[in-house]
Each structure stands twice: as C-alpha cells, then as structure tokens.
Design goal:
The chain has twelve helices and 13 strands. A hairpin with a 4-residue loop joins β5 and β6 (about 105-110). The protein has an eight-stranded parallel beta barrel with strand order 3-4-7-8-9-10-12-13, surrounded by five helices. The chain has a three-stranded antiparallel β-sheet with strand order 5-6-11, with no helix packed on it. It has helices at about 1-10, 15-25, 70, 115-125, 145-155, 180-195, 215-230, 260-275, 290-300, 310-315, 315-330, 345-359; strands at about 45, 50, 55, 80-85, 95-100, 105-110, 135, 165, 205-210, 230-235, 255-260, 280-285, 305. Helices cover about 40% and strands about 15% of the residues. The chain is α/β, with parallel strands linked by helices. It has one domain (about 1-359): TIM Barrel. α8 packs across α12 and α9 (about 290-300) crosses α11 (about 315-330). The protein starts with a helix and ends with a helix.
Length: about 350
Amino acid sequence: MIERIGLALLHRLDPEIAHGLSIRALNLGLAPAPGPVTSPRLATMVAGMALPNPIGLAAGFDKNAEAIAPLSRAGFGFVEVGAATPRAQPGNPKPRLFRLPQDRAVINRFGFNNDGMQAISKRLAARRPGIPVGLNLGANKDSLDRAADFATVVAHCGAHVDFATVNVSSPNTERLRDLQGPAALAALLEGVMRARAGLPRRIPVFLKIAPDLSNGDLADIAAVAHASGIDGIIATNTTLARDGLCSAQRDQAGGLSGAPLFTRSTLVLAKLSRLTHGTLPLIGVGGIATAADAYEKIRAGASAVQLYTALAYHGLSRVAEIASDLDMLLARDGFTHVADAVGTGRDALLHAADRSTEG
C-alpha cells in the first residue's frame, strides 16, 4: 500500500524529477529489500556468471551507479547500470522523458546523460560484493571516434564490474545505430575485446541491439557476434515504432519501451536464437511486467531477462513477485532448472509469426 501511494504521488510529478526522487528514496531505504530471490530452480549460469535468478535490471534506471546497494537487495539476480561515456555529458534538452499510461509505456530521448566514466568508476569500485553488476557502455555525442569510446570506458571501468554491454542501439544519439552495420560493428567489437584483454580479470561482454532490424541485419549481427568472440547479445533496446499507441504523448520523439515493445522484441530474440543455434547466451528485454512475460522470453531463447519500464507502473516490489511466480511456472511445466526451459517455445513462436506474415 505504501508503495502504491508513493507511485501515485510520483506520477503527479514530471517523470524525470520523479525518477530522480526514486533514486533518492532507494538510498534512504524507502523501497522493498527482500534480497536476491532464489531457489535451485531459478539459479542459473549465464556467460560464466552465477545468477541467483534470471531477472535483471536493465540499463538506464541507475545511469550513474548511485543506487547499486539498494537495487542489489531488491530481488534482482543481476543489475546493469549506465550508460557511461568517457566524458560527462548533459544529454538532450528537457523534457526528454514521457509517460504513456494507457499503453503502459515510456518514451525517452535522454541522449546518454551521465556523470562520465571517472565518477561512475569510483562508485563501482566502492561497491560491496553481491549479485553481478554490469556497466552499459556509451559514446559521447561529440566524439570524433565513437567506436573508440566504448573501448575507453571498458579499459577504465572494467576492473570494477562483472560484465559490460556495448550499446550501439540507443536511438537518441544521432547516427549511433549506424555502428550496428557489420563492418563498423566488427571493428568496434575488436577494439572492445582488446581493451578487455588488458583487464586484470576476464569479464563477459554483451552487445545490445535495436528491435528495428531486418532479418538480414540480424543475420549479419549474429555472424559478427560469433566472429568477435563476445559473450552474448541483449535483445532489445527501445523502438522507434509507434504502432497502436493511444496515450497523449505517443508522438514524442525518442525510444519507446514498455508493453508495446514486448511482441516485437520477443520475435527478434527468437530469430537471434535460431540464427545462433542456441550457442550464444541471449538476454531478453522489452515489455516484461509479469512472470508470464519473463517466461515467454525465456522460452523464446533468453537465458536471462531484464526489465525497467514496469517498475515505473508497478514499483520495485514487482521484481520479487516476478521471480517467485516464475519459479512456480517452471515447476508447473516440469522444469528442474530455468536453463532447461530456454528456447523450448522458440520454434512455435517463429512458426506462428511466419503464418501471420503469410496471412
């Protein structure tokens, strides 16, 4: 009840102000803190990382690594902070965050606003041991060599995180998504992998892709991912599509996240799973608000999932609910471990999508 009242009050405020207050509330202890929710069925390994459960926090919620401790106690199996760029930058002009309540969605055009890798690295270095924490890597808007920015952040911050994510899929930095092309992406990832080789310990590197890609684009990305030696793909970031929206802010520029993204991002995930033959760990993101949503992503091919927008509508207590309910869904269907469920619904989903296209 307290959480519902808090959410109702926050929804009366400008969304970005409300988000800042939620970070403060976390650090004051005004949030659920059940600790990592786990069981023998939920515990899993992804790219060499031991996760108490497969439910993660997507990048963007804690951009500056200011609330790692309370977020690590909120029920998640892993947390991703950032995106961090080499130099601090203010991002795009405000307003740049918009609620779409009728659609259970959000549009943002932040543009990698963050304190920069120096400040973020210090906070990461000071964190206490706990669940895996990763860093989303970004590029400065005015950089002369954006590809090099990703390697720079890895080299500076990599010693203090458990994984890193190359984010070339944000729609809010002009021409950033051009780096998803095969030649540019291969060169960028080569630089990141060289930077990782110089770290004191090996950390997994993931690639986060957009949902607005053709089948040919996905095939190219799968091929580059395998050749580069990265450890997995996160599918997907926000979308530029606006199909079927009814909220007043639906035409705002930026990336759309939340419920309307679920079907699109899950289909991309399933296609990637087929293209990679299940040999590369995938993390499913986009529109997850319930255990059923998380389970569908897993059965589409995700080894783990992440959420963010649902927290704005349901609160942080939803995390533990999803993990516990996912445990029950796995038990209902006879799975001893969550890893056994990965990809079990992929072919049926793709077949249904193909039939829908033909129709």
